[in-house]
Task: inverse folding
């Protein structure tokens, strides 16, 4: 191999080694990743941190992929996507949003909640938004249409405590278990149709 | 009804298709109730009956369509068949107001000599608050008892309030069916506790001309037995319904309810994905392990997993750095750990006896970005 061919290969290897060492130095938990994956994930984590985004959700997503023995490129793609979601969540929720709020906001956006819903939640609720956003994401993942879930959470968010929101989410789960369609379970169950559609007496 | 086929064949066929078919859309659900009843219609002797009640509902954010039928086989050998289809559309919710337009049509027959049908429409305007609300509505339509249709007109007002696990409802309505007129004052309370769902109704029919009068009340309890099964016990006295053709009576019924699954569209999965085993791939929401999250007051959280016949239970999630954490065996089939889990949304999986990582029931399944799934839950 000539020096002209050898030098670029050496340079790439050196950069990868430096990135891997840097990654390991920054967060030893990433040592569970393959070296190439680790370097790319560490770069994404660094760039998120530099942009003022929380790094922990990105690390956790990478570790989840490692535990599930996912291919490296898929882990990198998942971390990159989550980083983008966190960025969108911060744009909507504002720079004062907490780590947990951003993480829950990113999950809600990924689930299909409209950005306007997050903005409305920020406007109407003085308390932290972590639990309302988490409940919103969880409801949508349960099969409740995104706008029905948003309507329900927005209706509760202004005054309900976090525990009330979690209890509401449990009640919806119970309704679904009892056979109610997710959308109906999340809406006020007192409309005429729902009452009349109940199986009646013999 | 399908020509040439007895009613029970059609209903059993519908019931089987509801239980076994995959969902054509995420918002379609179905249940089948198999039950036994004792019923005493006013002016008749008490009679036992077996019942089959399939129900299906399609729901979208702006409306719903629901259909259910009941096939009753009385101990006399006579049969009763009822069917109802109902559709409802809603206006977009504003901060306090929502409109609703409902149309329903149904038919019923008893033995070979009595048959009813009706077709009505109702408009309601809802005033919605956080934990209370009210509505006003008007109904119009036709009903028939084996002859020309009789006009139906009604006006109603109602209010409701929710307090914790309790929901209260009160309503008043004035109904005209041909020459018949009556007023119903109705109230109900709905409560939940654990896997038990209770509802009780109490009402009175007053200022009646041809619609009967008196006090009536019903109660029903639904006990969740499993993820797709429940036991429904109901009984009481109900008034004559001149619109739908049911005559006043008393009843007691016990039914076993089966819910069709899955309830939602599951994300597409790669069968090579290492995390998902055959049970998860089948679309079952059960992994054989159930997760319960119980936040303590001291900032820690009790994580409880119920796994039948397990000898080793591990958990991994974003609160363990996705490292397996073994749970402590505390009693038969119950395993637990005390962990620090922050407020918010979390992702988790459970592994039993060193097998594959699974989504535990008690959490919501979601696509995990790795061609598999993760369970998610919320900590307040």
Result:
């Amino acid at each position: 191999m000539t020096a002209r061919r050898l030098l670029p290969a050496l340079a790439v290897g050196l950069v990868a080694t430096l990135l891997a060492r840097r990654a390991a130095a920054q967060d030893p938990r990433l040592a569970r990743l393959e070296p190439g994956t680790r370097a790319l994930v560490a770069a994404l984590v660094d760039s998120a941190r530099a942009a003022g985004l929380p790094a922990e959700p990105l690390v956790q997503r990478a570790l989840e992929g490692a535990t599930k023995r996912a291919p490296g490129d898929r882990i990198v793609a998942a971390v990159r996507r989550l980083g983008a979601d966190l960025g969108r969540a911060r744009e909507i929720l504002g720079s004062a949003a907490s780590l947990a709020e951003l993480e829950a906001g990113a999950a809600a956006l990924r689930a299909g909640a409209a950005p306007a819903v997050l903005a409305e939640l920020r406007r109407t609720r003085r308390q932290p938004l972590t639990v309302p956003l988490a409940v919103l994401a969880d409801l949508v993942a349960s099969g409740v249409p995104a706008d029905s879930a948003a309507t329900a959470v927005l209706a509760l968010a202004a005054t309900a405590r976090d525990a009330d929101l979690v209890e509401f989410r449990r009640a919806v789960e119970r309704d679904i278990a009892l056979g109610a369609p997710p959308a109906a379970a999340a809406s006020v169950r007192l409309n005429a149709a729902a009452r009349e559609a109940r199986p009646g007496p013999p | 009804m399908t020509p040439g086929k007895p009613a029970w064949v059609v209903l059993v066929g519908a019931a089987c298709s509801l239980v076994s078919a995959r969902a054509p859309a995420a918002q379609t659900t179905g249940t089948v109730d198999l039950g036994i009843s004792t019923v005493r219609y006013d002016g008749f002797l008490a009679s036992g009956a077996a019942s089959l009640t399939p129900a299906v509902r399609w729901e979208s954010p702006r409306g719903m369509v629901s259909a259910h039928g009941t096939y009753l086989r009385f101990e006399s050998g006579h049969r009763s068949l009822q069917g109802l289809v109902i559709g409802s559309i809603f206006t977009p919710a504003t901060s306090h107001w929502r409109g609703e337009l409902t149309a329903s049509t149904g038919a019923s027959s008893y033995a070979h000599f009595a048959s009813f049908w009706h077709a009505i429409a109702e408009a309601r305007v809802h005033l919605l608050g956080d934990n209370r609300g009210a509505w006003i509505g008007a109904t119009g339509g036709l009903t028939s008892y084996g002859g020309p249709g009789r006009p139906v007109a009604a006006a109603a007002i109602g209010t409701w309030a929710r307090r914790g696990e309790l929901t209260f409802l009160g309503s008043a309505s004035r109904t005209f069916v041909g020459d018949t007129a009556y007023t119903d004052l109705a109230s109900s309370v709905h409560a939940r506790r654990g896997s038990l769902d209770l509802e009780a109704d109490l009402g009175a029919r007053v200022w009646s001309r041809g619609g009967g009068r008196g006090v009536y009340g019903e109660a029903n309890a639904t006990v969740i037995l499993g993820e797709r099964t429940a036991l429904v016990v109901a009984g009481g006295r109900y008034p004559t319904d001149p619109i739908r053709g049911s005559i006043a009576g008393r009843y007691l019924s016990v039914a076993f309810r089966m819910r069709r699954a899955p309830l939602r569209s599951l994300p597409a999965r790669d069968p090579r994905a290492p995390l998902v085993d055959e049970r998860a791939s089948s679309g079952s929401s059960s992994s054989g392990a159930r997760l319960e999250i119980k936040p303590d007051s001291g900032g820690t959280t009790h994580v409880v997993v119920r796994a039948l016949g397990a000898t080793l239970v591990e958990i991994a999630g974003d609160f363990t750095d996705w490292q397996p954490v073994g749970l402590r065996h505390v009693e038969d089939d119950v395993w637990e750990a005390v962990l620090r889990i922050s407020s918010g949304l979390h992702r988790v999986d459970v592994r039993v006896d060193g097998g594959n990582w699974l989504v535990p029931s008690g959490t919501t399944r979601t696509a995990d970005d790795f061609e598999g799934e993760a369970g998610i839950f919320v900590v307040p």
Remarks:
- The domain at 278-379 of chain B is CATH 2.60.40.10 (Immunoglobulin-like).
- Confidence is low (pLDDT under 50) at residues 1-26, 261-286 of chain B.
- The two ends of chain B are 51 Å apart (CA to CA).
